[in-house]
Amino acid sequence: NIVYINLKALDKITAKTSSIKLEIGEKQYFGSLEIKGLKCQLSEDGDLRDTVAYLQVKDLASKDNNQVYLFNGWTFASSPTLQSIDHPIYDLWITGCENI
User: Fold this and answer.
1) Residues 37-47: pLDDT tens digits?
2) DSSP letters along 2-67, please?
3) Is the pLDDT of residue 22 over 80?
4) 44-85 pLDDT, tens per residue?
5) What is the b/e burial string over 2-33, where b = at least 16 CB atoms within 10 angstroms of the residue's CB?
6) What is the SS3 assignment for 75?
C-alpha cells in the first residue's frame, strides 16, 4: 500500500501553481526545490482531525549553504501558514494524503 502526500506548489513570480503527488520516501523537484516526503498521517486532537506530513525541502540553487534544509519538519493541512516554506520564489503546502 503506497502512501502519497498531495502538495500544492506555487511559483510566486509566474503565479503558477502545480499539484505534486509525492510517494513516501521519493524525491521530486519543483523549480530549484528538492522535496522529499518522509511521513504522512492523520492527527486527532479531540474533535479536530488533521493531516500532517513530514517534509524535507532543499533549495538546490543555493550554493552557499552546503545544502542545508530550507524546511525539515511537520506541516499541517489545516494551517499551512504555521509551518510554511520560507522562500522568496516558491511556496509549498500539503493538501492531504492518500492511503493512510
Assistant:
1) 999 998 887 78
2) --EEEEEEEETTTTEEEEEEEETT-EEEETTEEEEEEEEEEEEETTEEEEEEEEEEEETT-TTTTT
3) yes
4) 877 878 889 999 999 998 776 566 788 899 888 887 665 567
5) ebbbbbebbeeeeeeeeebebebeeebebbeb
6) strand
pTM: 0.86
* Residue 37, CA distances (Å) to 12, 54, 55, 72, 92 in order: 22, 6, 5, 10, 12
Across the strands, what pairs with 18? 9
Question: Which of 40, 36, 65 is CA-nearest to residue 52?
Answer: 40
Q: CA neighbours within 13 Å on the CB side: how many for 98? A: 10
CA distance 5 to 39: 8
